[in-house]
Fold:
Amino acid sequence: MKKLKDYTKEEWENICNNCGKCCLLKLQDAETDEIYYTNVVCKYFDTEKCLCTVYDKRCELVPECLQLTPENVDKIKWMPKTCAYRALFENFKNPVKTTIKGRCISENLVNPDNLEDYIVDWEDL
Ligand code: SF4
Ligand code: SF4
Structure:
């Protein structure tokens, strides 16, 4: 079986199924460290096309935007359980693709102080 380090850059990029789930804003409980997903999505996410609009510049524009690599993919505990990279790393069959299209809201439209009101408990996160 192919090892993670053997993927070319292009092959690695193509693993992503553009579900958009990693672009959802998350809250972390300061005491327990538990991560809570919200259905609020990064302001650079096109909610109609379900795509990042600044992909090549994403790490400059959004410092907390994650760049997944073969080296860090096993260390990011909050990745959605249906993420295609996580499926690959954890060695299970790619889950049926579901996206955030039609069930997310841009952070541009939300008061950041009210983020807790948008916490979701979707089965595919
Ligand atoms: S910058 Fe792009 S890839 Fe990063 S969180 Fe925002 S929409 Fe997602
Ligand atoms: S959660 Fe995984 S598969 Fe979905 S967009 Fe993010 S990196 Fe790609």
